[in-house]
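Many introductory courses stop at the sequence. We go one step further.
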Amino acid sequence: MVGVPIGRNIMTGATLCCDPISWFQRANLISNPSMFVLGKPGLGKSTITRRMATGLSGYGVQPFILGDLKPDYVDLVEALGGQVISLGRGQGHLNVLDPGQASEELHRLPADARTKLMADVHGRRLTMVTALLTIMRSAPVSDREETILDRALKVLDERHQGTPVLNDLLKCIQDAPDAVRQVALDRGSLTRYQEVTDHLEASLIGLVGGGRLGETFSRPTTTPMKRDRPVVFDVSGIDDTEMDLQAAVLLACWSTGFATINLSHALADAGLEPRRHYFVILDELWRALRAGHGMVDRVDALTRLNRQRGVGMAMISHTMSDLMSLPSEEDRNKAKGFVERSGMVVCGGLPRAEMPMLSSVIPFSLAEQEMLGSWQDPPAWDSHAGAESAPPGRGKFLVKVGGRPGIPVQVQLTEAEKSINDTNKLWHTVSRTGAVTEDGEAGERSGAEDPVEESTG
């Protein structure tokens, strides 16, 4: 009974209260305030996560949805009075070199805290630039190139006035300052330096000049992120065919979000602001992991936060196959570690073929495996209603903590929540072709008529 009310235990009918922060902080049931959510599409992974975000906001925890692709969380954040930041082609820009509000607040911090925060800002900048280049090339950045980028970012901080953008970083490398030439090992030859940086320069030109990733990261940040309210990055305007751009934007959102959290904690540590706790939601994790070799390391670097820092986390993917289909064995093992390290694992309906992979990470009894397999079955036809019934596994989840028996729960929505949990809005209007006319004849409905809307139930 400690945590956000989720619903009824399917077996006993008892109320289940559950969320990773309450179970870590208050109930001491888990050792890490994080959860991993697995389940087939359409069964309610986002619904149970939204319920936890709603309840935690009532406890004073700020939900941060760092990349909403569908969108599933925009209505919720608007209802909570939060900030919606839209990104995508022609919908806004996110400068990965922008330290955000850190540049405005640095002067308030003590010297040691200021040094630590700037080191974190530098590390995140370097991680994001190398991640974007990895996505551009579909191959990791070399050690020498990463060293050149590291030194160029430091030179840029010393020389540039204001907030730099990627074009400034490109120009810094093209100008060949002595500090960068030293780490490039050009042996005193400018020609050799240009040969060494040629590939890196070409990749950066691709980032700032359009290309596959467009101009999303090439200009100053359109909407700075706030730290004192719920925030969602709405990236639903990016088409699913642009997987590279989706992965890059997700990583950039994650980096910006965690940088904002670190700034909040640095100010709280210094006694300058109240301590805030955050519930960070990383949806569609598999998209970023598949963007290229080494992306697992980049995600791990961006998301690894100490549990004492007041951050709860929810990572969401479809199946273990998404994680285990990465090209290298090294990446697959690291991705599996995301599930292994989670304080709790919440499973919806899953294919029976998933069970061996899932059980290799967390022990599931045969009865639990059979339950998850039955929840992924398709809906049946209701001959009395003349329509499909709801899928048998919609809203049903098994909450697992380590080797303990799982808790099967049916998520139950309140009336106030139903309007913000409708992820099928685009299907409410009946298609014009084949619609039934007033005289009962099948025909094609004209665009001038009022659309016929189905009940959302």
